[in-house]
Amino acid sequence: MDNEQGLSRRDLVAGALRTGAGAALFSIVPASALGLGGRPAPSNRIVMGCIGMGGQGNSNMGGFLGQGDTQVVAVCDVDRNHLNGARDTVNRHYNNQGCSAYADFRELLARKDLDAISLATPDHWHAIPAIAALNAGYDVYGEKPISHCLLEGRDMADAQKRNGRIWQTGSWQRSQGHFRTACELVRNGRIGKVVRIEVGLPTGGGCGPTQFKDAPPELDYNFWVGPSRWAPYCDQRTHWNWRWQLDYGGGQMMDWIGHHGDIAHWGMGWDNTGPVEIEGAGQYPDQGIWDAATTYYFVCKYKGGVEMHLANGGNKGIRGGTRWIGENGNWVWVDRGGLEAQPKSLLQERIGPDETNLFRSPGHHREFLDCVKSRQQTITPAETAHRSASIGHLGQIAMLLGRKLKFDPVAERFQNDATANRMLRTPMRSPWRL
Amino acid sequence: MTRAIHIACAAAAMAALTSAAWAQNDPYAGLARYDGQNRTALAAIEKSVKAAQGKPAQAAAIEAKLAALLKDPSAEFAGKQEACRILWMVGTARSVPALASLLPDEKLGDAARYALERCPAPEAGAALRTGLAKLKGPALIGVINSVGNRQDPLAVGALTGLAKGADAGVAQASVAALARIATPQAAVALNALPAKGLPGWHGMVAAARTALAGKQPKVGLALASRVLASKSAPEPVRGEALRLLAGSGAPEGLAAALAALKGPSPYLQIIAAELAATVRRPDAVKRYAAAVATATPETAAALLTALGTRGDGAAANVALAQLKSSDQAVRTAAIRAAVLLDPERAATPVAELAARGSGDDKRMATEWLRQAKGAAAADAIDKLAGSGAAEVKGALAGIIAERDGPRAVPMLMANAKGPDAGAAVAALRALAPIASAGQLPGLVGIVTAAQDDDVRQSAHDALAAAAGRTPDHEAALAPILSAVGGASSQAKGALLSVMADIGGSAALAELTKGAASSDAEVRRAAVVALADRWSGSDALPTLLGLAKSEEGRSLRVRALRGCIRLIGEKKVDAAERVADLAQAYAMAERPDEKKMALGVLAGCRTAAAMDVAAEALDNEELFAEAADTVIKLASGNGAVSGPATRAALEKIVAKAQDGGIRDRARKLIQP
C-alpha cells in the first residue's frame, strides 16, 4: 500500500527512512527527530476495557491485571453471569468497587477515559467491535483468528492502519522462545530452501441431535447472535461451542490457524502475503448443529511454488504443530511441546548478529502495553493476523466448494470463480454492519 | 418405559426414516422438512451444486428448485434459510423474484437479503432499491446496508433522502452506505448532510481518492480540501485528506501542506512535515526549507528528517544552520539532514557535536563519524582531536579507534598517558578492543603510574584485553613480572589480576606469594584473582590451603568458592571430582557454598555424589538444591540408580513443597 491508502504517520516516516537516502547511514533515527518529542504519550498507566468475558477474555484480562502499569476499569459481556464474574474479579484485584460492567460494547467504547481494549468475543463478533474501537482511537488486543471471514480481516487491518492504532493479536506463540528459534533457523537458511510446510491442527467433533429451547435469562441471546443469521437457542450453540459452527467460528481448523498457521508464516516471512492456489477436502458432520469440518486436509501453494499442507493432526501423516522441510530433506518442527530438527545438530546452531534475528518478546501482553506507550508496531499487527487467518478462510472455501481455487493475494480475490468470491464476506443481520 | 414414550420414540424414528428417505429420493423435499438437525438432504443439494459448476443447465435447475422451495408455504424456516444460503453463493436473476418477496418477512428477510446482496445481476440491485422505498424498521436498515455493500451508485438519491429522515438508525445506516458507495455524487450528498459522523468522513475521503485516481481530479481535490478544512472531522481523517492533496501533485496540495505546517493542529503539522519527503512540486523543497525556521521544534525536526530523506541539496543550508539550534531534537534531525545533503560542509560542525554534545544529537553525530567516508570527516576529527581540549579528546577516542583501528593506537596511547583523567580513561577504553602485544609495556607503565582509580582500572582492562590477544604467554607476562616488584599496593593488585588471566607457573608463583603477603590489599587482590580468574586445577592446592587457613572469613569463603569452581572445571574422572567436592562441601561454613558444591555434584554421576546429595536432603536450607541434584543424577544417560537413589527420590516426593520438583521426582520413580 502506498501512503495515500491510509498508512499511519509513523508508518510513512519509517517507510521513507527504510528506503530513502538515510537508510544506509543511520541504523536508528530517534523518535525526537521524527517530531515525536512533543507528542502526547499515553499516561504511565494504561486504562483498559475488556469486551467478551468468557474463558479467553478472562485469561487475557488476568494477563493485563498482572501488569503494574495497567488499570482495567470496565468489562462487557452479553451474559450477565460472565459479566458479573469478571467485574468481581477486577474489583477483588484492586480491592475496590471501581470496575464498570456493560452489556453493550458500544456503551463501553463511548467512555472517554480508555486507552486500550481487550477483545475476546466469539469470531463472528470480532470485526464490528474491533473496527468501532479502532475508529474511536483505541489500541486493541484482539483474539485470533482475527476475523470470521477474509474480507472482514482486510477491513480490520485497514482500520488499524487508517487510524494509526496499535493492534496485538492473541497469537501468543510468537512470544515464546522456542517458536522464535524455530523460525530463525528457517529464516536463516539452516534447512536450505524450504520446499514444503506441514501444519497439523486438532481434529474436530460433532454433537448429534440438539434440543432447541429458550435461552437462559442471564444471556441476551439476540445480541449474542448479533450479525450472524438467526438460529434458535440450544445449549450446544453458545459458550465455547460456538467455534464448532460455521456461523460463528470455523472449527478446530480456524481456532488454531492463528497459532500454527501463523508460526508457519512467521518462519517464511509471509506476514504480508498469502497463498495463490488452494485445494482440499473436509469431512462434515451430518447431524446436529456443529457443522465445521471435523477432519480436513488442504494444500496452499504460495508464489514460488512452496506448498503448505494443512490437516488435522495425524491425517495424511501430518504431525500436530508446524514443520518446515528443506530441499535436502532437513527439517525443523515446533509446537507447544517442543522443538525438533533433522539433523539434531541444527538445534545447537546460533544465529549471528548479522543474520535475521526475530523479535524477542517480553511477553505477549507486556509487549502490547509497551507498544501502546512507544507507538511501535507489535509482533502481530492486524495485517499479520489477517494473513495468517487467510490461510484458513481460503482453505475453508476451497473445502466447501470442493475444487481447486486460484487466489490473488494482492487484490485478495479469487481468479475466475464468482462463487468463491461471494464467500469472501459473510453477510450481516440487520442492523449490524461494518 | 411407558406407552406414551414408546409412541413418541416410534414417531421420532418414523420421522427420521421419512426424512432420510426424502433426502435420498428428493433432497429438495428433504430440505423443505429440514429442522436444523439432519443435514443429509442439505449435503446432497450442496453436492449437486458443486457438480453443477460450469454447467449452466444443471445450475439453473437447482436454482429453480430452491426458488420454488422459498415459495412453498409448508417448507420449514431452517430449510428456507439454507436455500437462501445456497443462493447467496450461486443465485442469479432467476431467483430474484422469490428472494425479493421474502424481504419484508420478519424471520427470513435477512437471509433473502444476503442472497440478493451477493447476486451480481442488476435485477438484484433493483429489488433492493425497491426495498428502500417500501420497507421499514430493521428490514429497511438491512437493505440499506446491503445497498451500501453492493456500492450501488443508483441508490445515492434514495439514500440521500433516507439520510435526512427522522429515524436515527435509518439515517446512520444511509450515511454509512453513501460512504461505502463513495462516488463523487455520494460524497457531494454526504457533504451536504448536517451530521456526517465518522463513516461519512471516511466516505468523503474514499470518494476523493476514487476521483483523483480516475478522471475527476478537480472533484477529488475539492472533496479532500473540504475534509481537511472541516474542524469537525477527526484528525486521522483530515490527515488522510492532506496526504491525498499533497500526493496529487497539484499546486493546492503543496499549499495545503505548507498551511498545515502553520496551523493549530500538531497532528497535521507533523503529517505536513513528513510530506516534505515526497510532495511533487518544482518549488517544494525551497518552500519547505523556508518553513523550518518558524516551525515548532517537533515540526522542524520532522521537516528536517523528511528533507534529508528527500536528498535535495537545496535544503542543505537550512540543515546546516539548524545544527546550531537550541533544541536537541532539531539538532539531531539537522545532523541527519546535513550529512545526507552536504557531508563536506557538515563534517566539522557535526564533529563538534560528537565531541561536545549530549544525548540523541551526540549519538547521531558519533554514528555518522564512525562510518563516514571521505576526507572531510577524517580532517574534521583530526583537527578537533589535535586541538588539545581534554573533553574533546575523550569524546573522540572511541570514534577514532573505530575508524582507524591499529593506526589510532599511538595517538590513543599518548592521550592515555596525558594529564587529564577523563581523556585518559576514554583513550584506554578505546584502546581495549585494539591494543596488542606492542602496547603491553606501555599499559603496564600506565597501571603502575596511575594516581586515579578509574585510570588504573581502565588501564588494567586494556592490559588484560591486550594480553589476551597475545599468543605468547611468557612474552605477555614478562613486562608485568618485571614491574610488579616495585609497584604500589594498588598497582600490584591490578597486575596480579592480569597475571591470573594469563596463567602459567611463573604467574601462579607470583600469585601464591601475593596471597601470603603481609600487605592486606595485595593479599586480597591475589586471593580474588586466583579464586575468580585463574583457570586450571594447578591453583587448587593453593586455594584449598587458603580456604583452610586464611584468617579473614571473607577471603576464606572466596577461596573455597574458587576451589569449587576449579573442581567443576577439572579434567579428571567423576570419582576424583566427587572426592574433592566432598572435601569442599565439608569445609563450607555457609549454606551458599554447600549449594554451590551441590550444583557441581549434579554433573558427577556416581553413587558417592548421590550419597552426598541425599544426605543434604535432610538440611532444610539445602533441600531445593539437593533435590535438584538428586533428580539430575537420577535422570538421562548414565543415571545413578539403586536403592539409595530411590530412597532419595521418595524423600523428595514426600517433602517437596514445589510441585514441579515433586512431579520430576515422581516421574523418575514411576515404572
Mind explaining what this structure looks like?
The complex is a heterodimer of chains A (434) and B (671). In chain A, the strands form two sheets. A nine-stranded mixed sheet of chain A has the order 13-12-11-7-10-9-8-14-15. In chain A, strands 3-2-1-4-5-6 form a six-stranded parallel sheet, with helices on both faces. Chain A is 31% helix and 18% strand. The model of chain A is unreliable at 1-24 and 37-43 (pLDDT under 50). In chain A, helix 7 (177-187) packs across helix 9 (251-268) and helix 9 crosses helix 11 (382-401). Chain A has a domain at 175-360 and 383-422: Dihydrodipicolinate Reductase, domain 2 (2-Layer Sandwich), CATH 3.30.360. In chain A, strand 9 and strand 10 form a beta hairpin. With 434 residues, chain A is of the alpha/beta class. Chain A has helices spanning 9-19, 55-65, 80-94, 105-109, 127-135, 150-163, 177-187, 221-225, 251-268, 364-374, 382-401, 418-422, and strands at 46-51, 70-76, 100-102, 116-119, 139-142, 167-169, 194-201, 277-283, 295-301, 307-312, 321-326, 331-335, 338-342, 405-408, 413-414. Among the domains of chain B are: 18-150; 435-571, Leucine-rich Repeat Variant (Alpha Horseshoe). In chain B, 74% of the residues lie in helices and 0% in strands. Chain B starts with a helix and ends with a helix. By secondary structure, chain B is mainly alpha-helical. Chain B is flat, with a radius of gyration of 42 Å. In chain B, helix 22 (343-356) crosses helix 25. Classes of the chains: A alpha/beta (434), B mainly alpha (671). Chains A and B meet through helix 1 and helix 12 of A and helix 3, helix 5, helix 7, helix 9 and helix 11 of B.
What's the helix and strand layout?
The complex is a heterodimer of chains A (434) and B (671).
Chain A: H1 9-19, E1 46-51, H2 55-65, E2 70-76, H3 80-94, E3 100-102, H4 105-109, E4 116-119, H5 127-135, E5 139-142, H6 150-163, E6 167-169, H7 177-187, E7 194-201, H8 221-225, H9 251-268, E8 277-283, E9 295-301, E10 307-312, E11 321-326, E12 331-335, E13 338-342, H10 364-374, H11 382-401, E14 405-408, E15 413-414, H12 418-422
Parallel strand pairs in A: 1-2, 1-4, 2-3, 4-5, 5-6, 7-10
Antiparallel strand pairs in A: 7-11, 8-9, 8-14, 9-10, 11-12, 12-13, 14-15
Helix pairs in contact in A: 5-6, 6-11, 7-9, 9-11
Chain B: H1 3-25, H2 27-32, H3 40-51, H4 56-71, H5 77-90, H6 96-102, H7 109-118, H8 122-134, H9 137-149, H10 156-163, H11 168-181, H12 184-192, H13 197-213, H14 217-229, H15 235-247, H16 251-262, H17 266-274, H18 284-292, H19 297-310, H20 316-322, H21 328-341, H22 343-356, H23 360-371, H24 375-385, H25 390-404, H26 409-416, H27 421-431, H28 440-449, H29 453-468, H30 473-484, H31 489-502, H32 505-515, H33 520-533, H34 540-549, H35 553-569, H36 574-587, H37 591-601, H38 607-616, H39 623-633, H40 643-655, H41 659-669
